[in-house]
Write a structure and sequence with these properties.
With about 325 residues, the protein is an alpha/beta fold. Helix content is about 45%, strand content about 10%. The strands form two sheets. A seven-stranded parallel beta sheet has the order 1-4-5-6-7-8-9, sandwiched between helices. Strands 2-3 form a two-stranded parallel sheet. Strand 7, helix 10 and strand 8 form a beta-alpha-beta unit.
Length: about 325
């Protein structure tokens, strides 16, 4: 009876916290209502590609009842990637416990974990013929292990299903939990990614519920736990940061031994998310990319449409070759 009471209290606290986050989001949306909507420049426009591979990817994902960040995050590269028969799997449901202002993934109290999801992802990857699989997830602050064991189980399921498969992970910050990080890295992904996303000054506006220093700590700890697994992080530009602030974050990432950097343009998924403050010119991405190489990153992928998992296999292979 006491255990049941404790569960009820914890559930009530989670629901109260979720309600408070929803109210905060509504308040911030009102603040954004008067901001101008910028015209989309040519360099970030994408064509919709429909071919047999695209349709086949869609069918496999639907049959296996899987979520992808491609769809949930409204990625501009979805059409291209699916047409090449690849996708980025999103673990642990379609509802996130965080309220990041840039992300289109739905917010709320998630359902319990689907225990067969690792096997369904492995089967989908096998059917798609993937040799390099990228896994990401919603935040699961409601789980005792933050979802770390589910990541590890999925990596293992993929390795059991596909000989020689390479698995790259893009994880939440696990609330800074080293033990959670150790669980994921013990499953031996080929790349560990956690995105820093933006500059410290904008965290409260862009990533409420997350902390800049905590994200840096996670990346530093990943390198300490297993130096053979390269660490990766990314920023989105155009949410109000300055050029010098971006460079400062890049230096912070290098100081914490991050080896792989991605830089891309923030594109507003819907009117519920942050408005774009500025569309960054391709030449500026080139300049920042050159600066990344200059300060010691082993791999830099910089451009308006670059995302964490965009061309992930080719870039990971290139990074491994350099190592």
């Amino acid at each position: 009876m006491a255990g049941e009471t404790q569960v009820n209290i914890e559930q009530a606290n989670l629901e109260k916290d979720a309600a408070a986050k929803r109210l905060a989001l509504i308040s911030m949306r009102h603040e954004d209502a008067g901001e101008p909507v910028l015209r989309l420049p040519e360099w970030v426009k994408r064509n919709v590609l429909t071919n047999d591979d695209n349709r086949n990817t869609r069918v496999i994902l639907k049959e296996q009842r899987l979520n992808t960040i491609c769809e949930s995050g409204r990625c501009p590269n979805k059409s291209e990637c699916w047409s090449k028969g690849t996708a980025t799997f999103m673990l642990m449901g379609a509802l996130c416990t965080r309220t990041c202002r840039f992300c289109a993934v739905n917010k709320g109290l998630p359902e319990p974990l689907a225990e067969d999801e690792p096997d369904r992802i492995a089967e989908a990857a096998r059917q798609m013929g993937l040799r390099h699989v990228v896994l990401t997830s919603v935040n699961r602050d409601d789980l005792p292990d933050q979802g770390a064991n589910h990541f590890a189980r999925t990596i293992t399921a993929l390795k059991n299903a596909i000989a020689g498969v390479a698995v790259e992970v893009l994880t939440p910050d696990f609330q800074g939990r080293r033990d959670a990080l150790e669980i994921v890295l013990a499953a031996k992904p080929v790349v560990y990614n956690h995105n820093i996303e933006t500059v410290p000054r904008l965290y409260k506006r862009v990533r409420p519920g997350s902390k800049y220093d905590r994200s840096l700590d996670i990346l530093r700890m990943a390198n300490e736990i297993d130096r053979d697994i390269p660490t990766k992080s990314g920023l989105m530009l155009g949410v109000g940061e300055t050029f010098d602030e971006v460079k400062e974050v890049m230096r912070d990432l290098r100081a914490n031994n991050v080896e792989f950097l991605t830089l891309g343009q923030y594109l507003r998924p819907t009117r519920d998310q942050l408005p774009v403050k500025r569309y960054v010119e391709p030449a500026e991405f080139d300049e920042l990319g050159a600066y990344g190489w200059e300060i010691g990153f082993k791999m830099v992928h910089s451009g308006p449409l670059v995302r964490s998992s965009y061309h992930a296999e080719a870039k990971a292979e290139e990074l491994a070759g350099k190592a």
